[in-house]
Amino acid sequence: MIVLAVCNHKGGSGKTTSTINVAAALGLSGFRTLVVDLDPQGFLTRMVGLPEPPEPASSLALFDPQVRLDQVPVQARKNFDVLPASSTL
User: Fold this and answer.
1) What is the pLDDT of residue 30?
2) Are 6 and 18 in contact (CB under 8 A)?
3) The overall pTM is greater than 0.85
4) What integer best gives the mean pLDDT of the chain?
5) Pair 79, 63: CB distance under 8 Å
6) Please, which pLDDT band fits residue 33 given cuts at 50, 70 and 90?
7) Which residues contact 34 (CB under 8 A, 6 or more apart)?
8) CA-to-CA distance for 84 and 61, rounded, in angstroms?
């Protein structure tokens, strides 16, 4: 498993655009890809056409020790999954 984190404190630097394009390219190349949207604005979640899910079915579950990640639904596309953002983050 390879973990790739895209981080930068400055807004508007292309983090979301880079993330979705790299993830989509990897998915199209046959790699199983999971994108975890940790931005409370949820732009990446909206870019893939997903609404903000009810809790705890979002990336907020990562911070709840009582929620198991295998119980959190992930919105699936072929080889491209998204753990949607939460405005509560």
Assistant:
1) 95
2) yes
3) no
4) 88
5) no
6) very high
7) 74, 81, 82, 83
8) 10
